[in-house]
Design a protein that fits this description.
Length: 135
């Protein structure tokens, strides 16, 4: 898969009283980046779920390593650098920079959630999603 990136301007409301980005915003932004990738490359979350017979492409785990702060006015470049595929999950790798300065590295493990007979959800095979990404 080729890289995907998006830029965003850090605003006052993104920051804590110390003037640095409040860390939950980074998690919100990697989720936004993932959904922007789906919209641009595959038509969006809802259409993909319909095509895959899924209820959602849900989060199973998220990790982040903070390298340096981001502050109001910074132009943050957020990039998906790759996807590792397993049978019932896939892990996206992220990096964020302000200029040449690394702000954070992150990963998200997600699944293709499908309904079980009892109405609950389970992780389904991701082969169909992978094929869509690779075509």
């Amino acid at each position: 898969m080729t890289n995907f990136s998006m830029d965003m301007q850090v605003s006052f409301g993104d920051c804590d009283p110390a003037g640095i980005v409040y860390y939950p915003n980074f998690y919100r932004w990697i989720d936004r980046c993932f959904h922007a990738l789906l919209r641009e490359r595959l038509g969006g979350h809802a259409g993909l779920c319909k095509a895959l017979g899924a209820q959602g492409l849900g989060l199973m785990e998220a990790r982040m390593v903070f390298r340096s702060p981001a502050r109001e006015g910074d132009k943050l470049s957020l990039e998906i650098t790759g996807i590792d595929w397993a049978d019932k999950s896939y892990t996206l790798a992220y990096r964020a920079h302000v200029g040449d300065r690394l702000v954070f590295e992150a990963s998200e493990t997600r699944g293709v959630f499908v309904p079980r007979e009892d109405g609950r959800l389970r992780a389904g095979e991701v082969a169909g999603l992978r094929a869509m990404f690779e075509s």
